[in-house]
Design goal:
two-stranded parallel ribbon, 120 residues, mainly alpha, elongated, 5 helices
């Protein structure tokens, strides 16, 4: 557990107050989606990601009689996923989703959001 009242001089070298709070304050994670709900930049980044991965399609599995090795599953990874708003927006049923963030609170919010999808 991080101490939100820790003085600046006691923070680890190279860690700003904002970063320290991001890791430790549950309210940052629980309020994140509602705080940024109508922010145009957050709509823009999801649109950008959707455009970039639109061409990705999971290859059809080989026919049972085929000697071709089975294809690897499509994995969509979101590094610094926060509450997984972008990952949830681009998830496709045949994909495995990988959410990565340094904040345990953000990961808990992401888990709750992603568990509502057909392929949690």
């Amino acid at each position: 557990m991080l101490d939100k009242d820790r003085p600046e001089w006691q923070l680890p070298d190279g860690v700003s107050r904002g970063t320290w709070d991001y890791f430790g304050l549950k309210s940052i994670a629980t309020d994140y989606d509602s705080y940024f709900r109508d922010h145009p930049l957050l709509e823009l980044d999801v649109a950008w990601v959707k455009e970039r991965i639109a061409h990705l399609q999971h290859p059809s599995p080989p026919e049972p009689s085929s000697s071709a090795p089975p294809s690897s599953p499509l994995v969509i990874a979101d590094l610094g996923c926060g509450t997984a708003r972008a990952l949830a927006a681009v998830a496709v049923p045949e994909a495995q989703l990988l959410a990565i963030d340094m904040s345990q609170h953000m990961l808990l919010e992401a888990k709750a959001k992603l568990s509502q999808l057909p392929n949690p």
